[in-house]
Amino acid sequence: MSFVSLGFIVATCLLCLIYYIIPKKFQWIVLLVGSVLFYMTYGVKRILFILLASVATYCAARKIDKIYVYQDEHIKKNGLSGKEKQEYVLLNKKRTKKILMLAVFFLVCMLVYSKTGNWLQKTITGLIFGQEKSILPLIVALGISYYTFSMIAYVADVYWRKDRAEKNYFRFLLFVIYFPKILQGPISRHNNLAPQFKKEHYFDYKTFCFGAQLAVWGYFKKLVIADRLFLFVGKVFGEIPNCSGAILVVGSMFGALQLYCDFSGCMDIVRGISQVFGIELEKNFEQPFFSRSVAEFWRRWHITLGTWFKDYVYMPIVISPTLSKALKPIKEKWGMKVVKKVMTAIPLAIVWILTGIWHGTGWPYVAWGIYWGGLVIVSMLLESFYKKVLKKLKIKEEAALWRVFQMIRTFLLFCIARLLTIPNSLHATAVIFKKIICEFNISSVLHGNLFYYGLDRLNFIVVVVALLVLFVVSVLQTKGSVREKIADRNIVLRWSIYYALLFAVIIFGIYGPGYDASSFIYEAF
Amino acid sequence: MKKKEVAKGIAFVVMFAVLFVLVSKVLCHPEDERNYQWVAGFYEEPENSLDAVYIGSSNCYSFWNPLVAWNEFGITVYPYATNAQPFGAAKYLIKEARKTQPDALYIVNINTLGDEGLGIENLHYLLDYMPFSLNKLQLTHHLADMAGFDFFERMELYFPLIRYHDRWNDISLEDFNYEVNGMKGASDYSSFLCNVNDITKGYIVTDKEVVLEESLKELVEDLLDYCDEEKVKVLFVTVPRCEGSEDMVAKMNAVNALIEERGYPTLNLNGKVEEISLDLTKDYYNSKHTNIHGAVKFTEYLSEYLVDNYAFEDKRNDSAYITWNQAWEQYETIIESELLDLEMGQARLTDVMNMPQNLTANHDDVQVTVSWDPVENAEGYLLFRKIGEDGKWEEMIDTTQCLYEDKAAISTNAGWYYYTVVPYCEENGEIFYGDFSYKGVEIITF
Predict the structure, then answer these.
(1) Among A60, A416, B317, B320, which has the highest number of CB atoms less than 10 A from its own CB?
(2) What are the φ/ψ torsions at residue B285 (nearest 5 degrees)?
(3) Is A499 in Cβ contact with B16 (below 8 Å)?
(4) Does the beta-carbon distance from B20 to A5 stay under 8 Å?
(5) pLDDT of residue A135
(6) Under 8 Å CB-to-CB from B351, ≥6 apart: which residues?
(7) How far apart are the CA of B172 and the nearest CA of chain A, in angstroms?
(8) Is residue B254 helix, strand or coil?
(9) Which residue of chain A comes nearest to B12, CA vs CA?
(10) CA-to-CA distance for A407 and A405, rounded, in angstroms?
């Protein structure tokens, strides 16, 4: 059941009604039942994998938590202190670390098997038996990339004593399978969601309206902009030999905007729906195309993935004694300044390799990871040199024109990255770049050829106007909550805006017979 | 929640619903305008003004011509018909029509018994133009069940804006004020007016009956139960057409038998083409539908049956029915270009005088020369000409020769010319006409 289906909207409305009518202590059960049923609409068997992963994680976290509880009691009871206490704590740390590693290993294996299992089986059986075979069952687990990361974060937080283990397995399952976030994230933290599930939620008119407005805004981005842009992008990148370089450049820009509107639109839908239930999910986007650098971009795009990698990959590597030991010779030879840069570069490289793999297997995603990782690391390494150049050229970093230039530059870098993954083949990407450089042909854009690629003139106007609306709203969002601003206006203006948005989705949305039901891009992960 | 918030919430939803209906009215333009005219046109008829309502699929609107029936017999029989209308809709449509025409006879066509009417497009043709009512909701639910639609398809039927929302880029002024054309459901689409197809090979006649599927039997029984309960005057008609297989004809025979068992009248016209004077080689535009020529003959036949059996009065001079006269005048101008035989009325002896053979037309720089073979029993020939496919037939000459030289064709307008020849004879001072080609022979004179 897709988020953009009528069935989902009707089912959510019904669930919301039951949620607010039922006695408050059962609200979390309503959400759990709704989430399980939602997951099962994608196939009853699939739920077995998420149950298996959640049981393993639950047990691991409970075990770790029990060890710590016993440890604290033992220390207090026996009045341990100093070296004795330190040794006792270290011993327990080793035990809990083993459990953590086992749990993480199990979850990562499930994730890797899900992503690459079919390919691995066929390759190995091809080598051994001379014939490709599928022996083991495939895991086609929905949302596995998202819930695996959520569970790893949970068990790691319990290990680091940032969170307590959930005693009730079903409450933990709710955290894992909560339906707004299960398909595409955000990658939620247990210590954010769990307390909210435990609270009693009374119907609040303002919260409900704000949630509904955010969801409708998400549908606008997805159905009016993203799916409309896809008509163009799909056509252009399906007929690369027939397109000029200029058309391909427009295609890459539209591809970038399509991806943003698709993903952030979904995030607005899920956050809005969750808000309707009184549950606040983490933000995943913060106007990323207003970023002035690549590093800033990745702090504003897919925020929860970035913070996950920072908290659970980058920081553990940076503070790991193993890395410090390995860098000691460099420190002695080159000094602290160089070591600091190396200590940043190595974990960044690992993070970007893993980020690339998270997005997909295959050379395009490897190239994608290297591209972004390279940009981030190089800009980090050359930061001071870059500042000196700007100073020499007398360019004021805070000047409006310079800031606009930086934003456009970041956007163009993102468009280049899109060209690595849209065609899904590095060869096709090479052909595209060659065409852009050698067969640009600007007249193909200026003389109306744009309207031959899936979007006629009127649809082009609609998408441009919609993008302008998106731009204006994004600018307003940098100054505070747009929903609050609208809510402060008089009722005629407020309702006009709400109705305009609703009917924009109903009239201009790409849905219905004649269009294939478009899935969200990030659902594939 | 405070009372003010409840009131605001309700007001918002109500206003949304009003706007939704208004937007739907503008955007839900019928994909096939004909169906709009047939359905919406019914609701323009004053209460208790119709002798009968004819319910069914395209077999209604192609075979039955309400304005020919009006012009020749003064009876008002409106076709509440849509493209591939499923038989399962009949009960609900009778219910619907009885709201304004409770005393009318209900003629139900039973040729569309299969699943072909249950495609979502066909259901839109029927449901989109019916005014909202509980009966419409029940009909929608019933047809969606029969078709086995999923949730989204059902929603599309309840809210057709889901289907038509992207018409925003086709919108015109007409969408804001869509009008019924006042033609009482009389067909005027081009294939009906112009096309001719020989369906002799595919036409099957049989007296056999098959055992009906339970689901179809239940459907028929349910309709008859309703007619019993509400004491509906109903006549079941089967039109002569190609059914595709003997089994299908046998199925229709079985349905007729079931209806007769329940004491309701049937008029099974399959196998009765000679009685109706239908010519399988000329009076159909495809295997299942008559063209205007066939429709005139069928309408005359059925009209006589209705007048004889149901005592319908001739209302041609009744001022309350002036809109029917106006409709006929309008319709006559549309079909003039196709229908010479309408002018000839009943005075046709096509068995006595055959269609002129080898009707040819040639031209040189001076004239168009039309020639044909003599027709046995013919005393003379009327030659008609029309200029352009949509032109009006004009009598050019009454001649005993089998030749005509049209000098005006070259000297005036170059273009497409059509010629047809009607043989005639006279008996006791009365002129009788023979068979002739509806399309005639065409020639271009550029």
Answers:
(1) A60
(2) -100, -15
(3) yes
(4) no
(5) 62
(6) none
(7) 14
(8) helix
(9) A495
(10) 5
pLDDT score recorded for residue B446: 62
Find the Cα–Cα–Cα–Cα dihedral B63, B65, B70, B75, rounded to 10°.
Answer: 50
Mean residue pLDDT across chain A: 87
Helix residue ranges per DSSP H, A79-142: 82-129
Interface of B with A in 153-172 (CB under 8 A): 155-156, 161-163, 165-166, 168-169
Contacts of B20 in chain A (CB under 8 A): 506
pLDDT band at residue A517 using 50, 70 and 90 as cut-offs? very low
Question: pTM for the whole thing?
Answer: 0.82
Q: At what angle do helices A245-276 and A6-21 cross, to 10 degrees?
A: 20
**Interatomic CA distance for residues B252 and B113, integer angstroms:** 8
| DSSP calls for B316-385 | TT-GGGHHHHHHHHHHHHHHTTT-HHHHHTT-B-TTTSPPPSS-EEEE-SS-EEEE----TT-SEEEEEE
Q: Specify the length of chain A in residues.
A: 525
Pairing of strands B289-290, B368-371: unpaired
In three-state secondary structure terms, B51 is coil
Nearest to B130 by CA among B102, B93, B79: B93
Interface pTM, i.e. ipTM: 0.84
For the residues B344-362, what does the mean pLDDT come to?
A: 78
Q: Do A7 and B19 touch (CB under 8 A)?
A: no
Chain B residues close to A6, C-beta within 8 Å: 151-152, 155, 162
Picking from B427, B399, A286, the residue whose alpha carbon sits closest to that of residue B419 is B399
Taking Cα atoms as reference points, which of B72, B73, B77 lies closest to residue B343? B72
Question: Residue B21: closest CA among chain A residues belongs to which residue?
Answer: A503
What would the mean pLDDT of B382-387 be, rounded to a whole number?
88
